[in-house]
Design a protein that fits this description.
The structure holds 2 protein chains of 2 kinds. Helix content of chain A is 0%, strand content 51%. Chain A is mainly β. In chain A, a hairpin with a 6-residue loop joins strand 5 and strand 6. Chain B is mainly β. Chain B has no helices and 11 strands. In chain B, strands 2, 4, 5, 6, 9, 10 and 11 form a 7-stranded mixed beta sheet that branches. Chain B has a 4-stranded antiparallel beta sheet with strand order 1-3-8-7, with no helix packed on it. In chain B, strand 5 and strand 6 form a beta hairpin. Classes of the chains: A mainly beta, B mainly beta. At the A-B interface, strand 5, strand 6 and strand 11 of A face strand 4, strand 5, strand 9 and strand 10 of B.
């Protein structure tokens, strides 16, 4: 069975500082990997995804993530955080193929101080 | 492209009544739709997977008689919470996957259900 671990429940960074959110997955083969962001009371917005190819993936809002097969990780990074980035971030893993169900991590709440 | 809507965005109902939540794919055909439930400050838990024209597949522990799912067309799936109770209060989110795609899901904005 697939699983996702986000070790950090809550992270606080200063505006302008760099950010890295950790994600580790467990899956028998090469998975599909996703990062979503959720603002309070809102649905999920896709930040980026990895299906295949280049292991460094660029997303929206200046985010990037790197797939490291040897470490079973897909960490999310941003070089300079903005106050508007404060939200809940979810990593998810899905099986390859059409319409496969996703397994979500428990989420990391990002707080940005001014 | 790939927009998914949900209606209503929030609903308040009395205990014992039924509530229907709609999930629509606006600009693509969704062969598969997923329904998730999210408790406050928690992650999304998959409730069921529905394929157009077929019965939904429920995850372990989800009561199929309480959470009725219908996927009548390639653009519409509905979740009906029957005989709702306060413990059913939650944030319900649907997602849709397009025909022939790589499996990416497109998420709706969610529906906040409060049962009094």
């Amino acid at each position: 069975a697939q699983s996702v671990t986000q070790p950090d429940i809550h992270i606080t960074v200063s505006e302008g500082a760099s950010l890295e959110l950790r994600c580790n997955y467990s899956y028998g083969a090469t998975p599909y990997l996703f990062w979503y962001v959720q603002s309070p009371g809102q649905g999920l917005q896709l930040l980026l995804k990895y299906f295949s190819g280049d292991t460094l993936v660029q997303g929206i809002k200046g985010f990037e993530a790197e797939f490291k097969r040897s470490q079973s990780s897909f960490n999310l990074r941003k070089p300079s955080v903005h106050w508007s980035d404060a939200a809940e971030y979810f990593c998810a893993v899905g099986a390859r193929g059409t319409a496969s169900k996703l397994t979500f991590g428990t989420g990391t709440r990002l707080q940005v101080t001014l | 492209g790939a927009v998914v809507s949900q209606h209503p965005s929030w609903v308040i109902c009395k205990s014992g009544t039924s509530v229907k939540i709609e999930c629509r794919s606006l600009d693509f055909q969704a062969t598969t739709m997923f329904w998730y439930r999210q408790f406050p400050k928690q992650s999304l838990m998959l409730m069921a997977t529905s394929n157009e024209g077929s019965k939904a597949t429920y995850e372990q522990g989800v009561e199929k008689d309480k959470f009725l799912i219908n996927h009548a067309s390639l653009t519409l799936s509905t979740l009906t919470v029957t005989s709702a109770h306060p413990e059913d209060s939650s944030f319900y989110i649907c997602s849709a996957s397009d025909r022939g795609g790589l499996g990416e899901q497109f998420f709706g904005p969610g529906t906040r259900l409060t049962v009094l």
